[in-house]
Amino acid sequence: MDVDDDPKPAEPLLRLRGISKHFTGVRALDRVDLDVRAGELHVLFGENGAGKSTLINVVSGTFPPDEGTFHFESEEIRHLTPQRARAIGISPVFQEFSLVPSLTVEENLFLGREVSQGGVLWAREMRKRATALIDELGFDLNPALRVDDLSRAHQQMAEIAKALLGRVRLLILDEPTASLTERETGRLFELIARLKSQNVGLIYVSHRMREIRALADRVTVLRDGRHIRTLDAATSTDGELVELMTGRKIDLLFPTIAHKPDKVMVDVENLTLADGSVRDVNLYARAGEITGIAGLVGCGKSELIRAIYGIEPATSGVIRIDGAPYEFPAPRRSLKRGIAYFPANRIAEGLALSRPIRENASMTVLDLPAFARFGLLRQAAERARIGGIMAQLQLRPPNIERTAGALSGGNRQKVMLGRALTRELTVFLFDEPSVGIDVGAKLEVYEFMKRLVEAGAAVIVVSSELPEVLALSNRLYVMHHGRIAAELTGDEKTEQNVLSSFFRDHLTAEVA
Amino acid sequence: MSDLELSVMAKDTDRAKPLSGRWVWNAVLPAALVALLLGFAAFDHGVLSPANLLNIAQQTSYLALFAMAQTVVILTRGFDLALGPTVSMVSVGTALAMAGATATGHDTSVVLFAGLGAGFGLGIACGLFNGVVIALLGVNPFVATLGSYNIAIGIATTLSSGRPVQGVPKLFSQIFYGGSVFGVPAAIVITVVIGIALHLILSCTVFGRSLYIIGTNPRAAAVAGLPVKRILVATYVLCSGLAALGAIMMTARTGSGEPNLGGALSLQAIAGAVVGGTSLAGGRGGVGTAVLGALFITILSNGMNLTRIDGYVQMVVLGAIVIVGVLLDRLRLERGQ
Amino acid sequence: MSTARVTAGPQSSIGLRSIAGRIGFLPALLLLLVAAMSATDPQFYGIINILNILRNASLLAIVACGQALVIVAGGFDLSVGAVVALASVVTAKTMATTATAFPGNTALIIASGVAAGLGCGMVVGLVNGFCVAKLKVSGFVVTLGTMSATAGVGLMITNGIPVYGMPDIFVKGFGRAQAFGLPTAVHVALIVILVMVFAQRRTLFGRYVYAIGGNVDAAVVSGVSIQRHIVGTYVVSSVLAALAGILLTAQVGSGQASFGGDRMMLQSIAAAVIGGVSLRGGVGRVEIVAISALFLTILGNALNLLHVDSRLQPVFLGVIMVAAVALDELSRRRKARV
């Protein structure tokens, strides 16, 4: 792989200056600069919520930026639409956003730029081109299959093929390897090398060190929607990148938790889910320790704890809570048994945004006599109780009558955590607990977990952020393709071991 | 995580709007009502006569009941198209039951109970059907109630052979139509009582709270352990129950069971709820919005009647109002962003 | 594309999905119904009854094709029944007016009438489409409103009285004519169905309608212009409803505001839903919808022949519709997620 060491860089392919983007209550991008040269692979590096996704959406025309300038091939671009972006050669590969499940691969490849004459489709020509493209890419993909019949990996391939149809000047890849096998990843890397030699610019979103080492020419680090620094991949160290990403040294970020493992609170035996996302999983979690579950996107780790809580249907297997079998889990019954679940997507599954914080925090306890008697709400008691809890969690501003939608990500997570304090709970299931919240709020979430564990609760943390699960957990399960690939404790808990269990015996070569 | 950031953008339409906006909106409709009244009064002085005002109040009380019924389901992001046919079916059923009981020589109190029992029974059965199909079978509420719309029409016309059902006892009409409390007609009294009760249910009970939460974010409600399905079934039963009450009151007014009683009611009730400010996106609205909307629709049609505007034109106006009402709802949501 | 789907079948792990299952089960149901009715009532297979069935099925199929297109794109059109009525009275009224102005000029009279009828269909479709696509109002509610408004306009024009005064040739030479032993409506319906099948499979419009219904976000990201195609679906739906209204007018010989109505609207939705069009959008083919229109018409005819009270018939329609959607939902739930 030849690194582009051009001594005097010409005008870059893409030049962004001072790009800002706001969403409701969130400043997703704050005056970000970015240069991507032709023939360069430029990695966007940052934690979840750092603004990487928003930035690539701006580049591909999905979100118009609020301010800033946008130059592509030395030409200023305004009012970019997805259509126009593709026309000028900007091709994004989103994680799972741009395929229509009810159409075939071929129909998806050509969506928006069908070969047609007078509105009539030219099916044979499209078939020919689709087959040629897929052959050229070396993908094992049948263009006639409907997308919703494909596996995740195949959908990812279809997505990549779609991006490469037609003239491409700038290819955007958003964690493309998240659901690919080692072999497929190898193919992708070959493809990337070929594209670079054809002078195509690439934006590559990833936080896998190994990939960055293998592929990157330059790395731009984003944090909290701001551009932190752009460095040469060859001269930067892993530690430097991580430090820039988190804004502090890793050891400082995570609290030291005194794990005192006690009796087994959650015991899962041979659990298999209806959708096949989890197969034959055995796992246990003890009181007084944090049990971590790591794995790639789509490996089934979220589904596993969601099944324990009762929002994903299981087909076989046994779940025991505190020794007693728990059949037909459902959220309400889980709460009664002392199990709480904190969803990864707080907007979709956690909060009723236009309702007050008070109502959001008390949502899980309306069945308790302290909050409602004979179906009648005890609103004064509710106000006092929730007010106290939110004060304890340092909600800012401390007004519990504001709507949840007016809060920042971190404060929204606090409202969710507030639910944990409203009733007697013994098992806490955290699904990607630090997604979309700033560093300060993260620390508070970790401190919260520490208090729970040290008070003797069983905590299970599912996270795609390896440093997070590695630092927090006492024991760590690694999931891969719906199964437990490894169980790591003590000194075995290293990034290297986790990665090697993702890819089992395939590892070795790639490291730079 | 890309999902999250995108969903911030896509789904965050429910964001809190500034409080001042809410006040402006709350003032707009009453102002429009007064303007409407004065406007019609300019054409016809009869509009503002005490007799007509009382008439408007009485008219409104029926529609307000139906608008409240509709509001309850709209709060959960639902819809009840079958409300009108439910009213027809209940009217026919009530009248038939009472006529039957009278014919078999039963006591008047038994006759009344038979009528009320049949009426509420049919209403609740209809609500149960809707609720079960929507909540348990997962059918889109529009289609489910479009189905029950047909079913209720079929039952109402078949039971009555398409003709008004006679034999409603005088006493029934005297109680539910002719009766009055301190000179206030029964219809108004009943609606006020029900309105207050419903307001208390919505604001002070677990059920009411759940309705708003489910309407705002059904997924979150389910994850938080609220019994969503059970509550939805109860909501449709409550809606049809209120419709049945309105049907009984209207049957008392006409003195016969009418298979066409519900004709335009589904649309009027939806118009009332939506114009009053109940959001079709769910989670926003209440007794107040339903009553205001009903008042608006009633005054409009009362004024159009008095100024002799063609009934067909009124259909056009009603259709336009529904669209404008939903459009305003849309704009309000967008302004919140 | 059809060949593509066929070859796809055996390779896909999930195999025959619900729509494929439906293609099999709907004709079977249809045959069963026809066989049972032929056995019980000889009147059923009389030529008059058969022509009657075909005529009614054709009108329903025309309306249902448009409805199906709207539902595939993720919308809903409640106004079709009212558009049938409006087109009927507008066509008849225009013809009558033109006939007084230009007596004897039959071609002009018919052309103006048909143009006016289709034109008002187009206007309603544009209003629906504009409100849904540009103003982002729920299609269900918009068309609920335009349904009331359209029906009101139809009644205003006629005061509820049938409109006469159309040229004889329009009624006798077109509406009641037969070619190759089949009524005009059947020919028109076949043409409409063929054109719609072609549009769905072989044109950009059809492809984009599937894409929009299947995943709007993906369609946007891929650069499909959403608004134009959504407006298109509503216009097609309303124009087809208007066409059915004109055919009905030519057949009956007068323009009536009571044509179409709630019943036509409900039947068109029922036909679409039974024909495998998913209310979640993105799935559904017009040819199967046409078969289900035939099925519903025969069912209604059978109930009449069996002397089932016509007032009870809406009950059957309602139950069938709810059952079809419920089955679709249940099969979706059972299907493992990918």
The appropriate CATH architecture of chain B is Orthogonal Bundle
Shape of chain C: globular
Strand fraction of chain C: under 5%
- Shape, per Cα inertia axes of chain B: globular
Helices of chain B, by number, come to 14
Report the average pLDDT across residues of chain B.
Answer: 86
Largest interface: A-B, 53 and 36 residues
Helix content of chain C: over 70%
Total of domains of chain C:
1
Largest sheet of chain B: 2 strands, antiparallel
What does the average pLDDT of chain C come to? 86
Per CATH, the class of chain B reads Mainly Alpha
Order of helices and strands of chain C: HHHHHHHEEHHHHHHH
Tell me about this structure.
The complex is a heterotrimer of chains A (512), B (337) and C (338). Chain A is α/β, with parallel strands linked by helices and 512 residues long. Helix content of chain A is 32%, strand content 25%. In chain A, helix 15 runs parallel beside helix 16. Residues 1-8 and 505-512 of chain A have low confidence and may be disordered. Chain B has one domain (3-336): ABC transporter involved in vitamin B12 uptake, BtuC. Helix content of chain B is 77%, strand content 1%. Chain B has helices spanning 2-11, 19-43, 50-75, 83-103, 108-136, 141-160, 170-178, 186-204, 206-216, 218-223, 228-254, 265-276, 287-306, 311-335; strands at 180-181, 184-185. Chain B has a two-stranded antiparallel sheet. In chain B, strand 1 and strand 2 (184-185) form a beta hairpin. In chain B, helix 12 crosses helix 13 (287-306). The radius of gyration of chain B is 21 Å and the shape is globular. Chain C is an all-alpha fold. Chain C has a single domain (50-303, 312-331), classed as ABC transporter involved in vitamin B12 uptake, BtuC, CATH 1.10.3470. Chain C contains 14 helices and two strands; from the N terminus they run αααααααββααααααα. Chain C has helices at 2-11, 18-40, 47-72, 80-101, 106-134, 139-158, 168-175, 184-202, 204-214, 216-221, 226-252, 261-274, 286-305, 313-334; strands at 178-179, 182-183. Chain C has a two-stranded antiparallel ribbon with strand order 1-2. In chain C, strand 1 and strand 2 form a beta hairpin. Chain C is globular. At the A-B interface, helix 1, helix 11, helix 12 and strand 20 of A face helix 1, helix 9 and helix 10 of B.
